[in-house]
Design goal:
This protein is an alpha/beta fold and 220 residues long. It has two domains: 3-116, Rossmann fold (3-Layer(aba) Sandwich), CATH 3.40.50.2300; 125-219, Arc Repressor Mutant, subunit A. It is built from eight helices and twelve strands. It has a five-stranded parallel beta sheet with strand order 2-1-3-4-5, with helices on both faces. Strands 6-7-8-9 form a four-stranded antiparallel beta sheet, covered by helices on one side. A three-stranded antiparallel beta sheet has the order 10-12-11. α2 (34-44) packs parallel to α3. The two termini are 31 Å apart.
Length: 220
C-alpha cells in the first residue's frame, strides 16, 4: 500500500482516483488546487503524487518543481495536454511519468506500481540515536519507552526526524503540521515545540530538538 496525493481541479476525476486507488489498497488524499496540494504534500508526506498540469491557481509544472524542492517523491503527471512539448516540459520539471486524459484507472494503477518499483515508498519508520518514529502506526519511542504525543507534536517531530541535521523553518512546520490555510503564529509553534521537547527529554535524556535563532528548529 502507498500513500498517494491526487491533485486535479475536477471533482469527478478526484472521485474516480480515490475510489479506484483505494480499491487497490492505496491510501488516497486529494487536493483541487496547487496551494492546497503543496500544503498536503508537506503535511501528509505521500509516497507518490498524481498531479494534473492544469490547476485553477498554479501551473502544474510549477507545483511539481516546488514539490521537488521539498523532497524527492515520485510524481505522475495526469493531464489533457498531449503534445510532445507539454510532455517534455512536465518531465523536465521532475515528473517520473506522464498519463494523458482520458485514462483507464487500471493503466494508471499499473504505471503507479511501475514507478514505485523503481523508487520504493519512503521509510515507514525513522531511527535517530535512541529515537524511533513509527510513521504508519503514529508511535514514538525513546530508549524503548513510548512517548504520548499530540497529533501536532507527532507531525512536528516527523518533519524534523525525516531530515536530521537540516533546519526546518517555522513556515514549513506550520504548513506541515496544521490544517490548510490556518494562520499559525510563531509563538504557537514554539509552545508546541517546547511541549515536544519536554516529552523527549523526560528522565534527563539529552536535548534532540535545537533552536536555530531566526530560522527554525533542527534535530541533532
Amino acid at each position: 500500500m502507498a500513500r498517494i496525493l491526487a491533485v486535479d481541479d475536477s471533482a469527478e476525476i478526484l472521485s474516480v482516483l480515490r475510489r479506484g486507488l483505494t480499491r487497490l489498497g492505496h491510501e488516497v488524499t486529494t487536493s483541487a488546487d496547487g496551494c492546497s496540494a503543496l500544503n498536503a504534500f508537506r503535511r501528509e508526506v505521500p509516497d507518490l503524487v498524481v498531479l494534473d498540469l492544469r490547476l485553477p491557481d498554479m501551473d502544474g509544472v510549477d507545483v511539481c518543481a516546488e514539490m521537488r524542492e521539498v523532497r524527492d517523491v515520485p510524481i505522475i503527471m495526469l493531464t489533457a495536454r498531449d503534445t510532445v512539448a507539454d510532455k517534455v516540459e512536465g518531465l523536465r520539471a521532475g515528473a517520473d511519468d506522464y498519463v494523458v486524459k482520458p485514462f483507464a484507472i487500471d493503466e494508471l494503477a499499473a504505471r503507479i506500481e511501475a514507478v514505485l518499483r523503481r523508487r520504493p515508498p519512503g521509510e515507514q519508520s525513522i531511527e535517530y540515536e535512541d529515537l524511533h518514529v513509527d510513521v504508519g502506526g503514529h508511535l514514538v519511542t525513546r530508549a524503548g519507552e513510548r512517548l504520548h504525543l499530540t497529533p501536532i507534536e507527532f507531525r512536528l517531530l516527523e518533519l524534523l526526524a525525516r531530515d536530521p541535521g537540516r533546519v526546518v523553518p517555522r513556515q514549513v512546520m506550520a504548513a506541515g503540521a496544521w490544517p490548510d490555510d490556518e494562520f499559525v503564529e510563531d509563538g504557537v509553534i514554539d509552545t508546541h515545540v517546547t511541549n515536544l521537547r519536554r516529552k523527549l527529554e523526560a528522565g534527563g535524556r539529552r536535548r534532540l530538538v535545537q533552536t536555530v535563532r531566526g530560522l527554525g528548529f533542527v534535530l541533532r
